[in-house]
TrEMBL record:
Keyword vocabulary terms for this entry: ATP-binding, Nucleotide-binding, Transport
One of the record's GO molecular function terms: ATP binding
Protein's name in the database: Branched-chain amino acid transport system ATP-binding protein
CDD domains attached to this UniProt entry: ABC_Mj1267_LivG_branched (cd03219)
Cross-referenced PROSITE patterns: ABC_TRANSPORTER_2
Gene Ontology CC entries for this record: plasma membrane
Stored InterPro entries: AAA+_ATPase (IPR003593), ABC_AA/LPS_Transport (IPR051120), ABC_transporter-like_ATP-bd (IPR003439), P-loop_NTPase (IPR027417)
Record SUPFAM superfamilies: P-loop containing nucleoside triphosphate hydrolases
ABC transporter domain mapped to chain residues: 4-252
Gene3D superfamilies the record matches: P-loop containing nucleotide triphosphate hydrolases (3.40.50.300)
Length: 253
């Protein structure tokens, strides 16, 4: 049973259809990739799911909740978090501070508690720290924890960005081009992390990615977008032998 369902979503900017009647079903516990040529609408789709854009028409549901008009922080509270294509990190802060800050956006104690730092505030703070430490450990960021994010290699920054999304304890993680700009070794590491996010942390993964080799290797199901429309859906073999998909990619060259 799918638990994230995009139904007939259209998104327009003026006369431009970024998405046209897109239907998508994300199965829990799997890795679903969304691929397509430049400008196909992949990031727009993630933006609609995560609440950064609201569809012009159509609906998005997660479990029994309607996401269609929710703001990003509400979507995140329901268990869907997002790692961004263009890093949303604070370059002047350390890895640890970036991750703690991501948790603090969701503060559930009031200022008075915080000032005196007892009771609920202290408990929440300890939980935050424990969560962040487990994410640092999982994403193998220990050597970088005190380093300023802006000084790290691009590949490590991308890992911190995924870690930032993981600190929100998602059930579903949306990864927008997690391998962009990485060398081969960094990509292999990221593939390993993505597999572990699925297997060890049992998080449903949705990826937008341009590296077709990686997509074919890691995806349980693949959606192909072209000019805002879904033109293919299936596993790697089905996608590779789909004439519309092949044509869309050849047309791009
Ligand atoms: N905020 C916006 N305002 C106007 N047009 C937009 C906006 N966001 C996206 N678009 C347009 O919608 C279309 C789809 O863009 P989108 O970024 O979703 O594609 P994409 O498949 O993610 O592309 P890429 O692979 O190059 O990142 C493009 O024509 C883009 O110019």
């Amino acid at each position: 049973m799918p638990n994230l369902i995009v139904s007939d979503v259209t998104l327009t900017f003026g006369g431009l259809h970024a998405l046209s009647s897109v239907n998508l079903e994300i199965q829990p516990g799997l890795i679903t990739s969304v691929i397509g040529p430049n400008g196909a609408g992949k990031t727009s789709l993630l933006n609609c799911i995560s609440g950064f854009y609201h569809p012009t028409s159509g609906e998005i549901h997660y479990k029994d909740r309607r996401l269609t008009k929710l703001a990003p922080h509400h979507v995140s509270k329901l268990g869907i978090s997002r790692a961004f294509q263009n890093l949303e990190l604070f370059g002047g802060l350390s890895v640890l501070d970036n991750l703690m800050l991501a948790r603090h956006k969701d503060l559930s104690y009031n200022l008075l508690h915080a000032v005196f730092f007892f009771g609920k505030a202290a408990r929440v703070e300890a939980e935050n720290r424990e969560n962040v430490e487990s994410v640092i450990d999982f994403m193998e960021l220990e050597p970088y924890r005190k380093q300023t994010v802006g000084n790290l290699s691009y590949g490590v920054q991308k890992r911190v960005e995924v870690a930032r999304a993981l600190t929100l304890e998602p059930e579903v993680i949306l990864l927008d081009e997690p391998m962009a700009g990485m060398n081969v070794e960094e990509k292999e590491d990221m593939v390993r992390f993505i597999f572990d996010i699925k297997k060890e942390w049992e998080i449903t993964v949705v990826i937008v990615e341009h590296d077709l080799g990686v997509v074919m290797d890691i995806s349980d199901q693949i959606y192909v977008l072209d000019f805002g429309e879904v033109i293919g859906l299936g596993n790697a073999d089905q996608i590779a032998s789909n004439p519309r998909v092949v044509e869309a990619y050849i047309g791009e060259e």
